[in-house]
Specification:
By secondary structure, the chain is of the alpha/beta class. It has a single domain, classed as TIM Barrel (Alpha-Beta Barrel). The chain contains eleven helices and ten strands. Helix 1 runs antiparallel to helix 4 and helix 4 runs parallel beside helix 5.
């Protein structure tokens, strides 16, 4: 696979900020023996986020059972589940004074429930230790386990997120082992539960662009996501983490990201974050607080409305 030959646009370049909070985050993570997707996934925003005391914990180890073409996380055979991890995550949240904690994980296809029970344990541990901290979970697809959404949502996260990542045509190359329809079904299950039980959590997803999709495919995918009942959408540029990963097909311009945002908002999303370096966990607290806290998403779009 060839390395990217496109010159990196100026809006994609990041400085490497540091400071007291940057070092504090690293110290706490090391002391608690915790992983982050920021480090494992080679996120370009890591320096900025750590310098603001912001991060996304990655639970269930640092070895993923899948090998996605875009992701820098190590693939292989993970070890067992760390029963002490929920408490250590909660300790880290308390020590860092977080008001919005993002919890994600590797895929754990080796576990009967895909890791749903461990997610619930982490959520409960954080709520018990830090009662004024919102908890956002960014989950895998749990292998389509039908009870997984309820297991996680029974622990009362404030945001339930699962990333669709890309358009269906690119799933075989970008997300082998995952299924576009399965990801939509997981999000729809969370949205249905919210509607039936009148619960207050947000349903969220994210996609990448620049992998070779067309603008028409992006629009169709965003529409599918809205039909599933998703309220918050993030759209960011794919950046090749290593030469061994999928190459960047092209870089989208800021104007194109603005266009995607406006099109998505017209479908009734409560909030859309769309830009070159947007990631699902980047400024995550802003996606569900402030001016949008009082703004409800429109009702899911019915299939017949679009025919």
């Amino acid at each position: 696979m060839n390395a990217v030959r496109h010159p990196l646009p100026i809006e994609y370049k990041r400085t490497l900020p540091a400071g007291p909070l940057f070092h504090r985050v690293n110290e706490v993570l090391q002391a608690e023996s915790l992983n982050t997707i920021c480090v494992s996934g080679k996120c370009p925003n890591r320096g900025e986020c750590f310098s603001r005391g912001s991060l996304a914990f990655m639970i269930l180890g640092d070895v993923c059972t899948r090998r996605c073409g875009f992701c820098a996380v190590t693939s292989g055979r993970p070890t067992g589940v760390d029963a002490g991890e929920p408490r250590r995550v909660a300790d880290a949240v308390a020590r860092l004074g977080l008001k919005h904690a993002v919890i994600t994980s590797v895929d754990r296809d080796d576990l009967p429930d895909g890791g749903a029970g461990h997610f619930a344990s982490v959520i409960r541990a954080v709520h018990e230790m830090v009662d004024d901290c919102a908890v956002e979970v960014l989950t895998p697809d749990f292998k389509g386990h039908p009870d997984a959404p309820d297991v996680v949502l029974d622990a009362r996260p404030d945001v339930f997120s699962h990333n669709v990542e890309t358009v269906p045509r690119l799933y075989r190359a970008a997300r082998p082992g995952s299924h576009y329809e399965g990801s939509l079904a997981l999000l729809a299950a969370a949205a249905r539960r919210k509607a039936v039980h009148v619960e207050r959590f947000r349903v969220k997803t994210g996609i990448m662009v620049g992998l070779g999709e067309t603008r028409e495919e992006v629009a169709e995918t965003v529409l599918d996501i809205r039909r599933a009942g998703v309220e918050v959408l993030t759209v960011g540029q794919y950046l090749q983490p290593t030469p061994g990963h999928l190459p960047v097909d092209r870089f989208y311009t800021p104007e194109e990201f603005s266009g995607i945002r406006e099109e998505a908002l017209s479908l009734g999303f409560a909030h859309v974050e769309s830009g070159p370096l947007v990631r699902s966990s980047y400024h995550a607290h802003e996606h569900v607080s402030g001016h949008i806290s009082a703004r409800a998403a429109g009702p899911p779009i019915e299939q017949e409305q679009m025919s």
